[in-house]
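Q: Sequence in, structure out?
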Amino acid sequence: MKKPNILIVMTDHQRADTVLPDNPCIMPNVKKLATEGLSFTEVYPPMAHCSPARASFMTGLYPTRTGVWNNVSNEYAINHGMYQGVKTWSQDLREAGYELAYCGKWHVSARDDQTPKNYGWRELSPYKGTLKRGGSSWERIRATADDPDPDGEDMINVPGYDSHSLYGEAEVGFASDEQTTRLALEEIPKLAVGEKSWVLFVGWNAPHTPYRAEKEYLDMYDPTDTELPPSYYDDMSDKPDYYRKLRQNVFDRLGENGAKEAIRHFRAVCTKIDDNFGLIMSALDDTGQVDDTLVLFCSDHGDYVGEHGLFHKQVPAFLGAYRVPAIIRWPNGLKNPGRTEDRFVSLADFAPTFLDLAGVETDRYFTGNSLVPFLNDATPEDWREEMCTQCEGTEQMFTQRMVVTREYKYVYNGFGRDELYDLVNDPHEMKNLDEDSAYNDIKRDLVRRMWRFAYQEQDRLGSTQYIMVNTAPWGPKEAFRDDAGKNLPAAHPKEFQRA
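A: Exactly. Output:
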């Protein structure tokens, strides 16, 4: 029996709420996919940053096991690629006889020996590493020190830094995405005539900043209808100092009108994404392989898009940057289409899912778990009850871990004040309860879950016992204690996979 074809479309910086039925984003093609498929509404990357998220998607592992902690394309990266010996699901499917084709963004590694072709893919256009050497930039900075800052509502001018444009109108939003779309449209009919099952990965850069959209898409959104998110007026006085400094020094320079325009441009870019996605779906329809093809529309991480006055992603651990869309359609393999699933899902779950669909058996460890039971309209009894994340910062290095449950979210910030939010009564994460002693039992439970996941994933955060970094409210021994404070029996890390 022929295994299903797999078509993956991954965007960059796209929030989960953009594909919801009542969201202002005009995305009819993606929203139609949801009515024909299965929408996962609580999908998280291991960190809200491109490379760690994409490495987890490709391997089914978290950063502690991939070695990809931050964006690999700059000199601050802990590693410029994955650990040697880490295997991707694409290699497994290639070995199982699948034909694999890749076009668009990779950003898993900056190493020349870790491009898509090294992991089983046929590259539709040559992919090169993107390591940016920063040493020579001092001369560029010196040479441009007297240049005037560009004007414009879209510009963010922080004294002494390069100016940044957050949004704007353009004849073509992302030229590279247009090329990627063209390559995908040319490749789909070629894959369809072959005898092998196939996988096509389409990686778009949009809606990554700067949000640049064509006029026809901007005209679809009335500026007077654009509202700021409820958390925009959060002064963040109870948040880590870094969060407040980032807002005040950088994004407050936009002003309210600039923030609204940025939101409007972001939505316009999402609509352009939807049009290109519609072209991809039409090309697949023309091949007659719709029923046998699993289509996944997803993103690597989200974007604050004005939440708490912020844009972009990375260290502030607000859920707008951590929730991503993930919709699966597969007419011949999905039971009861049109469903939504709100169980916690990780980008690391897709690797074991693809192996499961391809009938590939392996005994190697995965952080993630197969989503196939959900495709069959079943929920595993032991599915995770919380979502944990891992962050070791960006260009300035921050240590952060997060635990999310249905009711609460706890963030351990090694660089500053911790965070605790009541997600039921405070869904916009406005009030930090970390210093409220009435929530100590809840916080301790979440810290225990954090350490159990750290043990499961062999996170070096817990094995570091240097006194100068012992700043969590309870230390890693909590992983092995029950509610009464008694030690739990020794166990393999997998015991805590679904604590």
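The longest strand covers residues 5-11.
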